Amino acid sequence: MSALKEKLASQIDSLREDAKAIITACGDEKLSEVKVAQAFGGMRGVTSLICDTSEVSPETGLLIRGIPILELTNRLPEEIFWLLLTGETPDEGQMRSLHEDFISRSEVPDYVYNMLATFPLDSHPMAMLNAALLSLERESVFRKRYFEGMSKDEYWEAALEDGLNLIAKIPAIAAAVYRIRYEKGGLIPSQAKLGWGANFARMLGIDAPEEEFAKFMNLYLTLHSDHEGGNVSAFSCATVGSALSDPYYAVSAGLNGLAGPLHGLANQGCLRFVQGINERYHGVPTDEQLVEYAWETLNSGKVIPGYGHAVLRCPDPRFIAFHQFADKHFKDDPLMLIVDKIYRLIPDVLREQGKAKNPFPNVDAISGSLLYQYGISEFRYYTVMFAVSRALGLVAQLVLNRAVGMPITRPKSVTSAFIKSKFSPAVKV
Fold first, then answer.
1. Are residue 387 and residue 373 in the same domain, yes or no?
2. Secondary structure class of 361 (helix, strand, coil)
3. What is the pTM of this model?
4. Residue 230 belongs to what H/E stretch?
5. For the segment 307-333, what is each residue's pLDDT rounded down to a tens digit?
6. pLDDT of 176-191, one tens digit each?
7. b/e sequence 291-314, b meaning 16+ C-beta within 10 Å
């Protein structure tokens, strides 16, 4: 039994008992009430999910198992995965065990690479990634054991097996998507001595200082690893998984959500905004020019991309972490100087406008610009990198949901006619 599985096995009974105790003690208590506007507004603000891996505090930002994300920026993504699953940070021996486990599972079958090579070169890289992950479903431990008749108490073990296999392989698959889709040359093999994030960085084949790029990639994968249970990717994964679809189906469903412009494509828009400023002023604008540009953007009915957040009411700590990295490695680069100037000036502009509940930057305001610094100019690939990171959180949430026996997700829906007849009979369409 691996160290991670052993640690989880020691916690499962307690997780189940806690869930039962909570339901017994306060199962009839209300978490929230749903307004008609929320039903028509994507359920925003409706508190109706349980997610123990992370939470987003409006005042402090992302917390991983109660720990502010800024306190975890020196951790490897593998450590974050352990923390997401167990609530504890691994010791040296546990990290070594997890590393060895990932290496032993990391070989990608040839049929996956052969399939990727058949995609037209104008294919979207996210479609390629998800097709590759779904092709691995034939090897699902969960599906096999389910139809062999495993008990409900064993669901989490089979889900963990699939999840570990998926996470171990996704860096190589994502790197293959990059190199095949953008004709970067042959595939680059992993190295057993390197960690999960460093191997991903190496297999991409980016022309950048190896150690520095590996540090950036570890930071990137850590910061994007999880973000509560209600975002599109996490909720989609949990919903599909609740039907006892195996983790390949469920995680792929969640990652497909990242391909949407309103979820995983935001950093591309932010980068284009920064590049547009750079082109307009042939470099870094003055403070006055930037403020003028911001008002011109707002008065045209557009928004300042990367500023504002559905939950946060403070600067996104993930932005802060990236900003600190940029200040260390790209302090004098024009694009990063523009990002910094936007950070200093735009919040006051948004406050004066009075429409933004949160005038501060989120992580997308800088992440794309940093990827661009390393020569990754293929914007559509950015979401694949996001997906590699987010797979950590999706798998962790999925395993824990199976451990506590979360039922199939099945909210009740009503018709528009019902709403009108109940609350406003006079409304006519």
1. no
2. strand
3. 0.95
4. none
5. 977 777 889 999 999 999 999 999 999
6. 999 999 999 999 999 9
7. bebbeebbeeeeebbbbbbebbee
Q: Which secondary structure element, helix H or strand E, spans residue 425, and what is its range?
A: none
Does residue 346 surpass a pLDDT of 90? yes
DSSP reduced 3-state for 177: helix
CA distance linking residue 141 with residue 161, whole number of Å: 7
**Total count of residues recorded for the chain:** 429
- d(CA 45, CA 171) in angstroms, rounded, equals 34
Q: Are residues 217 and 299 in the same domain?
A: no
Long-range contacts of 371-377 (CB under 8 A, 24+ apart): 371/220, 371/267, 371/271, 372/271, 372/335, 373/326, 373/329, 373/330, 373/333, 373/335, 373/336, 374/206, 374/208, 374/213, 374/216, 375/206, 375/207, 375/208, 376/204, 376/206
Nearest to 290 by CA among 323, 338, 332, 360: 338
CB 349 within 8 A of CB 295: yes
Contact predicate 173/115, CB 8 Å: no
Establish how many alpha carbons lie within 13 A of residue 200's alpha carbon, considering only the half-sphere containing its beta carbon.
27
| Residues 252 and 282 reside in one and the same domain | no
Domain that holds residue 332: 266-377
Active site amino acids? 263, 309, 364
Of 358, 377, 396, which one is at a domain's C-terminal end? 377
Sorted by sequence, the CB contacts under 8 Å of residue 249 that are 6+ apart come out as 134, 137, 240, 241
User: How many domains does the chain fold into?
Assistant: 2
Residue 35 in any domain: the answer is no
**Are residues 155 and 167 part of one domain?**
yes
What is d(CA 13, CA 9) in angstroms, rounded to the nearest whole number?
8
Query: Which CATH number covers residue 314?
Result: 1.10.230.10
What per-residue string of b and e applies to 230-263 under the rule 16 or more CB within 10 Å gives b? bbbbbbbbbbbbbebbbbbbbbbbbbbbbbeeeb
Quick one: DSSP state of residue 186?
S
